[in-house]
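Sample pair:
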Amino acid sequence: PGLSKLKRQAQVMLEGKPQKLESPTLPNTPCEVYFDMESDPFSETEYLFGLLVVEDGKERLEYFIAKTPEEERKVFEKFMARMKQLLRDGPELAIYHYHHYEPKHVERLVEKYGGSSLLKDIQDHMVDLLPIIRKSVVDGVSIALKIFSQHLMIL
C-alpha cells in the first residue's frame, strides 16, 4: 500500500492536479453552513466570522467584522446569536469548516466572553472537511484549502 500511494502522489505531481480516490460522504441536511474565521495574529483579535448559508438551493453570504480589537466581543456575540437562530430554525444543519482553527477559536472566545450553553450545539453540528478531503483525494502539493480549492470540482 505504501508504494502505490507514493506512485499516485508522483503521478499527481507530474500532472499538476489532484486525483480523486472516492466520492466524499457528506451529511444530507436541508441547511449547510460553510464557516470561516480570520484573525490578526499581532493583536490576537478574531476580526472576521464568515458564513455561507445554503438553504433551499439559495446561497447567502453573511459576515461579522470587528474593525478594532475592542469590537471583537460585540461581533462574536452577533455571530453566536446568528448560530443560535440557525440551530433553532433548522436543527438539521451541517456547519462545515476546514481543520481545527474554527472549533478551537470559537471555544476560546466562549471561554473569554461566554456562550457555553450554545457551544456544545455548535460543536455537535460541525463537520471538518480536512479528513474528508484526505480520504477522497491524492494531492502531491498541498491540501491547504486556499491552494486546494481551485481543484474542488473533481469531487
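The mean pLDDT is 85.
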